[in-house]
Amino acid sequence: MRTLIVDDSREDILNLRSLLEGVAHVEIAVAAHSLAAARAMAVEYSPDLVFLDIELGADNGFDLLGHLPQGAQIIFTTVHTEFGAAAYEVNAVDYIVKPVSEERLLRALAKLRSLDTAPLTSVQVYRGGGQRHQLALATVAAIKADRDYSIVICGSREYPDHRRFHEWAGLLAGHPFSQLDRSTLLRLDLVHSWTPFGSGLKIKFRNSPAEIELGRAAAKRFRELNG
Prior knowledge:
alpha/beta; Rossmann fold
């Protein structure tokens, strides 16, 4: 994903560059310190994603929007809080108040509309500061909410991930996952067996020692789906 950073602060550009290093599919193409430079770079590099500051010296970042290629996605980064409504009126992906933290950046990137029409066959999972893992989607057995984040059950391991549960639900729409409640997505075809556990069920998966516990509502939905 070709990326353009537009900011008149060299310190903020360096911070954002360092946070984006190693993020899958994000390519740092160029950085512009002024509106004039950003316009030229938008034409030359045709970015897919633009991180855009709003106050650029005497200029306003909103004035760049008409010079961006069609389909370019915008994440505003600014020290000001009062432009949020205007940002979403122009269909910005997100609006981040600086300084940009890793956790906040990851949440913004998780909202990106897909630029790739190829079928989703793998996912990269990670949480801020942690190791990244590329998982084949066909081997992912379940997704569980974990406060503001998620846990991905794959093989014999549980992987912490930066996405919120509702973001996983949207990402996996159209794939063979069933949502059992507000915190559980499950691949029914990978389930090996289940046994009563309190008011719910304990689920075991094929060719894996991994297991998860379902509460009352999720267990009820699981039974319904299994006839």
